[in-house]
Amino acid sequence: MNFKIYLIIVIAIISKNLLSQDFHYSQFNENPSLVNPALTGSSNATRASLVYKDQWRSVTTPYSTFGFSFEAKLKARNWEKVDPRRSMTFKKSSSRMAAGLSVYNDKAGDGKLGTLQTNLSYAMSFPLSKLSALTFGIQGSVVQRKLDKTALIYSSQYNGSGYDVNLQSGETYAHQSFVYPDLGAGVLWSYGHNEKSIAANNQFKALIGFSTYHLLRPKQNFTGSADDKLFMKYVFHGNILIGIPSTNLAIVPSWLTQFQGPNKEIIGGIMIKYYINEDSKYTGIKKQSAFGLGVYYRNSDALIASLLIEMGRISAGFSYDINLSQLTKATTARGGVEFTLRFVTPNPFLYQKKSRSMFN
Fold first, then answer.
1. Which tens digit of pLDDT belongs to each residue from 338-353?
2. How many CA atoms lie within 13 A of 175 on its CB side?
3. How confident is the model at residue 165, as a pLDDT?
């Protein structure tokens, strides 16, 4: 079998599997709505982000994915007490709510297999102690899928020496576009305390969760088959930040495991962060800045190199997948690039006057 035929078969197999797989990003920590609905509002009072991924440009029509997400804590002042060194006091709510909106658009391969997904997420967090909380989240989605069947080729069209587009494919398509609703849910345990100062750097934060997607088992009816339903997806994930005392460094191990029918994805790795400065808690003039370098491994697929730059409320991330799978013969280890851009708003308790007393 010559190289071109081998390449076509490998890509055809991968494209078929994509029909039953979801979006996946190398910088999974930057796309919380795809990991666990309970992550909604878990990091900042308000968070907005953009993501773009370009994959396998070296071997075929690139697989391109765009995404946008926005999330916010509702009544953010109820989420935590004011800094004890100030006179202001806020009522601490027994339940804390957050909501989010995310939109992702993907186009894959020569068949232009497209997915447009809009998610609405809602989370409610319940404090377990001063440092930990348990959060429950739910996510409703509307998904549109498209496919250009005229651009596809099939094994039945191989005549022994090449592909003949005039041969019948043997495939019957009922639709080239369809829309379906979907539902996901998750739970998250969070723990953390901040450092007393950047010099002390004794911070420790942890997010560990479990989620399930496709609870409605929606039909994937390009072929009209009533049995062609989307597999439920099970996700177990974690992200831990550990400050190294008396340094400006922190280590951030994280992992993501996803199981969906016969498919699985396991990513694990670590990022080293260097803090240039920290927030000034009372004036708001000085903003926290940091940069991080990370390396991750996706099982049987790729080694991922990652760079993160945080400048005040804006962060930018870049990652590159070095392909290690069977497709390496075609890609020569070239996988794909991914860019992220994030904007957050500060803690609502920061930069407030000591003289005021406020209750919410």
1. 999 999 986 544 444 4
2. 12
3. 66
Over residues 145-173, the mean pLDDT reads: 68
Average pLDDT on 333-342 reads: 84
Distance CA 137, CA 133 (A): 13
Using alpha carbons only, give the angle 248, 250, 256 rounded to the nearest 5 degrees.
160
Other C-beta atoms closer than 10 Å to the C-beta of 165 total: 10
CA dist 135 and 237 (Å) reads 14
Q: Which CATH class is domain 3-344?
A: mainly beta
What does the alpha-carbon distance between residue 229 and residue 223 come to, in Å, rounded to a whole number?
11
For the residues 214-228, what does the mean pLDDT come to? Answer: 77
- Residue 171 has which token pair? 């495939």
Condensed to tens digits (0 to 9), the pLDDT of residues 107-150 reads 876 667 788 999 999 999 998 988 899 999 999 999 998 877 66
pTM of the model: 0.79
pLDDT of amino acid 144: 92
- Residue-wise pLDDT for 72-85, tens only, equals 998 766 665 544 45
